[in-house]
Amino acid sequence: MRSRQFLWLSAAVLAPCIVLTVLFLRLLDQERQLESRRATEAAQQRLTSARQNLLAQIEPHRLGQTAGSQISFRGVIENGRIRMAWELHHSTEDMKALESAVRSNDAALFRRLAGLPQSATDEHGVPVAVYAIPHLASDEQQRQQVRLRAEAAANPHPLSAMGLRLIHAPAALIEAAQQGESFRQQTWKTLPSEGQWLAWGQPLQLIGFAPSTQPGQLVFRAVTAPSGLALDKGELLGPPFVNVRAQLPAPAPEDGSRNRTLLVTMFAFTLLGALFAGVLLLRDARREQALAGLRTQFIAGVSHELRTPLTALRIFIESMKMTPDLDPATRAEYLDTMLHETERLSRLVNNVLEFSRIERQTKTYTLAPIALRAVIESLLATAGPMLERAGFTLKADLQDSPPLIHADRDALEQALLNLITNAMKYSGRSREIHIKVAADGPHAAIVVRDFGIGIPRNQQDRIFESFYRIPSTENKNIQGAGLGLTLVKHVMEGHGGAVTVESEPGRGSAFRLLIPL
Ligand code: ADP
Questions:
Q1: Per-domain residue ranges for the chain?
Q2: Mind listing the pLDDT tens digit for each residue in 387-442?
Q3: Positions of E strands within 291-431
Q4: Which helix (DSSP H) or strand (DSSP E) does residue 510 occupy?
Q5: Per DSSP, which regions of 306-411 are E strands?
Q6: Among 348, 424, 425, residue to substitute to test ligand 1 (most atoms within 8 Å of Cβ)
Q7: How far is CA 180 from the centre of its chain?
Q8: Does the beta carbon of 469 sit less than 6 angstroms from any atom of ligand 1?
Q9: Measured in angstroms, how far is the CA atom of residue 411 from the centroid of ligand 1?
Q10: What residue's CA is closest to ligand 1, atom 12?
């Protein structure tokens, strides 16, 4: 029955813990999912903002809204064919004038063009003046160039615009021209549509495609890609970028791990709390059970203790009633036994009453100065016949007794009587009891010593608990309710004193009462 109750209680404690653990694991799992979703969203967001930044930076180039100097190369797509800028017919008057000046080696025209402002540029942003100035140069190398150009101009098949440019152009321009050429050769089949950006080349170029003023034409302009973009590593930026990848900065450390730590800590605390509460509950239940067991034991003990003297009394009274002419010696013996039994009864009833007062916390002690020696002597005189009848010799050493103590006389007498009764009950074959009273530092010490069955060390604390009786076979035959020492301890504590025990199984016990002087 008990073990079943414990089983139920343990189940009641464990079930919420298991539910809690399952819930926690689910929560942890959800948190992990949420975190990975958050990470994906954050990466997406970083990508979007990188894309927007890049677009804001380069979109004006695609739409031709900036000066041409940042454009590496450009061209149009016409009927599915790429034509680079230098193949196109230039409409600007100055470029036309430059070409005719080169053709005719017209120094006056060169001079006018060399004086043009910086803002007059070709489609690459190279000022027309830069082209014109070398023609006016005086040193040998420049004259050589002038001659070359003159020859070119004299040629019935003049150099193409590309050729002309290659003669004059700075190295960067030549490189751009070469890049444009290889772009044309490599990518014309995979050209994207209007509005898109294509990454190409090494170093990376971004090529944007915009509608042209000419119907059916698509203009494209190549811009040097900002750093952090690549063709082969990083995240795809997504439309309008066809194949651009960006290496995004590592995400800031997420709150997730902090959340998880918080969750784990909360869970650990809750679980510990639940387990702790469970343990307390189990302990309480166990105590309750132990107390219930002790109460049953108490009732059994008390009833037994009541029944024994009552039965004895009834037997003697009946015998005396049935034999009115009992001889005086037997009659005296009967009366002695009856007296002894009534004393036992009243001791028991007193203990039970005191105990119930203690339980109800209504027990109080009235301390008054009393002559200790006189109290013990009168107690011994009262207990004398009882001890004598049972064949005990009591040796009292009251010589060093302090004269006065502050105590509740009745309570002290009862405590001492309990110790003497116990000494008698648990004396085994021994018939000797010693009482010694002496001053012990700030206390008066009263030691009641017997030479009986003794108390095992591991039981010496427990014997002061309510209803506790040592569960030994020897004890089973000795009547008792387990209250005597509880009362002794309470009385001593009520006096600000203490009770201690020294005992050895088989050699006897010494109970020491310490009362403050
Ligand atoms: P009880 O009514 O059982 O004597 P007590 O509270 O007086 O109750 O004592 C508690 C237990 O302590 C006893 O059951 C007994 O086992 C043990 N005990 C008390 N006094 C002695 C003693 N002088 N010698 C041996 N054991 C003792």
A1: 2-58+256-299, 61-246, 364-516
A2: 888 899 999 999 988 889 999 998 998 899 899 999 999 999 999 999 999 999 89
A3: 368-371, 393-400, 404-407
A4: strand 508-516
A5: 368-371, 393-400, 404-407
A6: 425
A7: 63
A8: yes
A9: 19
A10: 463
Q: What CATH class has 364-516?
A: alpha beta
Nearest to 220 by CA among 392, 71, 436: 71
In the chain, DSSP finds a helix count (H) and a strand count (E) of 13, 15
Ranges of beta strands (E only) in 186-271 are 197-200, 205-211, 217-224, 229-230, 235-236, 245-246
For ligand 1, is residue 405 a contact (CB within 6 Å)?
no
Q: Angle between the 484-494 and 328-359 helix axes, to the nearest 10 degrees?
A: 60
**CA–centroid distance, residue 491 to ligand 1 (Å):** 17
Q: Is 487 in the pocket of ligand 1 (CB under 6 A)?
A: no
Rounded Cα distance between 431 and 411, Å, is 26
Nearest to 492 by CA among 405, 425, 387: 405
Q: Which residue has the tokens 């040629």?
A: 155
Element (H, E) at 281: helix 256-322
DSSP-assigned letters across all residues of 41-86: HHHHHHHHHHHHHHHHHHHHHHTT-S-GGGEEEEEEEETTEEEEGG
On whether the CB atoms of residues 301 and 352 are closer than 8 A, the answer is no
The residue assigned the tokens 């650990």 is: 268
Alpha helices in 133-199 (DSSP H): 140-154, 161-168, 171-187
DSSP symbol at 365: -
- Ligand 1 atom with minimal separation from the 423 CA: 23
- 499 - beta bridge partners? 513
How high is the pLDDT of residue 157?
45
SS3 162: helix
What is d(CA 124, CA 221) in angstroms, rounded to the nearest whole number? 10
What is d(CA 32, CA 44) in angstroms, rounded to the nearest whole number?
Answer: 18
The Cα angle at residue 80 between residues 75 and 86, in degrees rounded to 5 = 25
pLDDT digits (tens, 9 = 90+) for 208-252: 999 888 787 888 988 888 888 888 888 888 899 988 998 877 766
| Type of residue at 118 | Q
DSSP-based three-state secondary structure for 175: helix
Task: Quote the pTM value.
Answer: 0.49
Structure tokens, 56: 């804001």
The token pair at 465 is 């608990």
Is residue 133 within 8 A of residue 145, CB to CB? The reply is: no
